[in-house]
Amino acid sequence: DVQLVESGGGSVQAGGSLRLSCEPTGIPTSHYCIAWFRLSSGKEREEVAHIYARNGRSDVADSVKGRSTISTDNAKNTLYLQMLSLKPEDTAMYYCALRRGPTSYPWGLVSSYNYWGQGTQVTV
User: Are the CB atoms for 55 and 72 separated by under 8 Å?
Assistant: First the structure.
C-alpha cells in the first residue's frame, strides 16, 4: 500500500521558517506529481504547491510565492516544502498528496490526487 508520511510541522513565531517533509512509501516519487495542500478553519482545502518529480516542473500558490519552495530529493524519495517569513494566515494543517501519471489537471483539483497523508500542523 502507498502511504505518505508528513513531518516538520510545529509552532513558530511570525517571520520564522519551517521545512515540511513528505516521504511516500510503496511508490517512488520520480514518476508522479506531488503536492502540498493546506486546510485551515473556515476555509476550503487550498493547494500550496506541486512538483512533477521527473522533470522538476513546479508551481506555488500566489499566497506563498516568494516565501515558499517545493522540491524533491528523488534519491531519498522525499518531498519538501520550505516555508520562510511565515505569517499567521499560514496557520493550517498541511497535507502531502500524490497522483499517478504525467497528466496535468487544473490547479487545486483535490479529486485528481490518489493518495493523501495524515497532515502536519503548522501554527504561526
Answer: no
